[in-house]
Amino acid sequence: MKRFLYLLAILCFTNFHTSIAQSKVATLTYLKSIDGEKDNLKDFLKRNWFVMDSIAKQQNLIEHYALWENPTSNQDWDLIVHVVYKDEKGYEGIANAFEKIRSTHKKILINNKDLKQLGNIVKSETVLIHP
Predict the structure, then answer these.
(1) Residues 105, 48 contacting (CB under 8 angstroms)
(2) What confidence tens digit (pLDDT) does each residue in 18-42 have?
(3) Which residue has the higher pLDDT, 4 or 109?
(4) Where does 14-92 show beta strands of DSSP type E?
(5) What mean pLDDT is predicted for residues 98-108?
(6) SS3 48
(7) Structure pTM?
(8) Residue 28 C-alpha from the chain's centroid
(9) What percent helix, strand, coil does the chain show, rounded to 5?
(10) What share of the chain has pLDDT > 90, as a percent?
(11) Over residues 73-86, mean pLDDT
């Protein structure tokens, strides 16, 4: 019995250690607002992208999401949407589930403007986060 408990403890520790040591993926989506639309672009992201990200987080599909703002004007980008996924698969690992979320979301326009009238995605990067 002692031997069984010892082996069980090793298995539990190994599984625990493996889950802690797992790398994760984050995406960084850089956006540039159209002149005078930065606040409206932020509002659009919060009312649309982050509503869907909030559901994804509740469903345990993503770990974290945030909006970062460039404090300097006249740069290549104004905002970054930062999303951290649970593992190295990133968005690909949750694509089907997230598309279900997207299909039920009703897009909210800001001052009758969509993303294309408020700003542009200038680049997107995927980074690996090591424990």
Answers:
(1) yes
(2) 455 688 999 999 999 999 999 999 9
(3) 109
(4) 24-33, 62-69, 79-85
(5) 98
(6) coil
(7) 0.81
(8) 8
(9) 45, 30, 25
(10) 78
(11) 94
Eight-state DSSP code of residue 131:
-
Q: Is the torsion defined by CA of 105, 106, 107, 110 positive or negative?
A: negative
- Phi and psi angles of residue 58, each rounded to the nearest 5 degrees, phi first: -60, -35
User: CA-to-CA distance for 23 and 86, rounded, in angstroms?
Assistant: 8
Rounded Cα distance, 14 and 62, in Å: 24
Q: Provide the token pair at 81.
A: 């949407």
Burial class, 104, CB count within 10 angstroms (exposed 0-12 / middle 13-18 / buried 19+)? exposed
Count of C-beta atoms within a 10 Å radius of residue 119: 23
Is a pLDDT exceeding 70 seen at residue 1? no
CA distances from 93 to 6, 25, 40, 77 (A): 35, 11, 31, 28
* Burial environment of residue 45 by CB neighbours within 10 A (0 to 12, 13 to 18, 19 or more): buried
